Amino acid sequence: MLTSPDNTPDRIARMMLAEGLADDFQIAVAERLLQPGERIVTGVSIADAAQARFADPNVVLLWRQSARAAPVRFGLPDASYEQRHPDKGLITKLEVRAVSLARMQLRDDSIVWDIGAGSGAVGLEAARLCPAGHVYAIEKNDDDVAIAGRNRAAMGVGNHTLVQGKAPQGLDGWADPDAVFIGGSGGELAELVALCLRRLRLGGQLVMNFVTIENLGTATATLTELGADWDVVMLQASRSKPILHMHRLAAENPVWVVCARRAST
Are 115 and 180 in contact (CB under 8 A)? Predict the structure, then answer.
């Protein structure tokens, strides 16, 4: 990489740390090539390079220490994500996550909003499904923001922006989305639904998950008032659990998946 006064080797190294890639790469810096004082800096860790200063002009070389396995893009087990415990695991369960992502109608370059990100599972899988797009995620809880950030780093996802805040504050600066996922509303559901439908690009999809009758009622009433084209799917998955030398089915909580579309014309 050719550097610049603003994009220096230490800044590149700090980005590698922030993306959770520091242990995957080696770094070298070539200073003042073909000039007096030419020097090649090798054998330095990414963490050390993040705190160092290098002579200009310079070139940065990065190379992987081992081949990267192709990541699973869709349907990761819940255990793949760190979750808040023992309080409660704020994560959209695998079965609901799969249906929600399918209903978002994602493309390679989709812009996605993840509102009420929790542990970040939906937004992070969306980011993997949209490598040429971007996911903007917001979460109000301190602990969950930290957990979602660690999940992001562990997955090595770079097209994902996570901010702490309570929607709809902070959404004005985001690019208009092709898809919006609402996993939590912080009591501003009607306002959020109206905002998301207004900002959605033509043909865009709004997908919401609810576990309470009250939020379901608020969402469907708001969508009806706004004249939106919407539908509801109720999911209740059961998972096998061992019992003695056999297995039984344990029911997960039912979840309503509410989907609305912005007309393409």
Answer: yes
